[in-house]
Amino acid sequence: MSVQTCESFLPFFIKFIGIIYQFITLKEPGIMKKNWLLLLVLCLIAAFTSCNKVKQEKKKEIVIAIIPKVDNAIFDQVKQSALQAAKELGVVLTWEAPSSIDGKKQKELIENLIHYKVDGILISCNDAEMLKDPIDDAIKAGIKVATFDSDCPKSDRIFYVGTDNKKAGKVCAQTMLNLYEKAEKEPHQILVLCGGISALNMTERMSGFRSVINDGNIGEVLYSLEIPDYGKELVTYDLAHNKKINGLQMFWGVPALNGVDSFPALSRFMKHGGISVFFDVSRSLLKYIMDTPNCATMKQDFRSMGHDGVMNLYNAIKGKSYKMEILYDVKVIDQSNASEEIKKL
After folding, report:
1. Predicted model pTM
2. Ramachandran assignment for 258, one of left (phi > 0), alpha (psi -120 to 50 degrees), beta (any other)
3. In angstroms, how far apart are the furthest CA atoms of the chain?
4. 251 and 203 in one domain?
């Protein structure tokens, strides 16, 4: 019996019991009357218990929605590990990827999820400022909202799970300096490629990087808007027009994930002794790093982000204790350990 059917049936059942009660009080003698009344009470209890059970069964299914910045290869590990966690917990998981990195798209998704009354939302924010109010609205609607990968700390989100991005920026900078030293070179100008302009993870990585690398050695900071071809065009143009560039830091690493050889301008830059630090991993990129001493990449723990994020959010939804922050360090992968890392993919 559905909740709606049960609730509509109860008033008629109670009215029917009332009629029977009136009939019994008029017609039946003492002992029989008590037996009938006891039976009626038991029937009422059974009816209410049944309906309450139906309601509880209806509410038992927990729905968690994950909103990545955009659908791309980087977030595949998050998706798969989150689905595994959902399976372990017996909850429904929905993957709601926006069509672009425009914060308005994620705002619309949050508004839709409020309408559908999901239990929890885990989001990687494209625009921390724009998404503050929508996240707060979801919280007010009783939805548990947390962030992963890219935070929105000014909102009422309940926790963040992801890379310690400022620390990651420092690690990138130190790795780049080590590569320069190994190649017996000095940094002249370092070109930096980021993803979204308003994404907090990019801002934090850049902040960490600047705390180690002298500002005078940092050239252009390019924003790809998380569009791979556009990112390639930006880098290609700057490498062609600024011959002082001898270092490339990619805080958004998607353009290199299909392999450096698939990115002609980058391939030429590396063959001429350019120093590069990438971000994230793929089989093609790790194979390249195995054979190339003047580059490295950063490995993020996306599997843990997805799995731990769903587990922690589930605990919050169920009223259990949960962690307010879960941070992961990046792992530096260079020629010394690329062969071992490729076996883990």
Report:
1. 0.81
2. alpha
3. 108
4. yes
DSSP for 40-92, written as a single string: HHHHHHHHHHHHHHHHHHHH---EEEEE-SS-SGGGHHHHHHHHHHHHHHT-E
Please, which pLDDT band fits residue 42 given cuts at 50, 70 and 90?
Answer: low
Helix, coil or strand: residue 250: strand
Residues 182 and 296 placed together within one structural domain of the fold: yes
- Per-residue pLDDT reduced to its tens digit, 63-118: 999 999 988 878 999 999 999 999 999 999 999 999 888 899 999 999 999 999 99
Range of the domain at 79: 63-163+302-328
**H/E element, 231:** helix 228-241
* Length of the chain (residues): 345
What is the C-alpha separation between 171 and 209, in angstroms, rounded? Answer: 8
Residue-averaged pLDDT of the chain: 89
Q: Which amino acid is at 54?
A: V
Whether 211 and 286 map to the same domain: the answer is: yes
The number of beta carbons lying within 10 Å of the beta carbon of residue 149 is 26
Q: What is the pLDDT of residue 5?
A: 46
Element (H, E) at 279: strand 275-279
Identify residue 94 by its one-letter amino acid code: T
∠ CA 227-264-219, rounded to 5°:
65
The residues that bridge with 295 in the sheet, in sequence order, are 276
Indicate the residue type of 281: V
**Could you give the 3-state DSSP secondary structure of residue 142?**
coil
Overall average pLDDT of the 205-212 stretch: 97
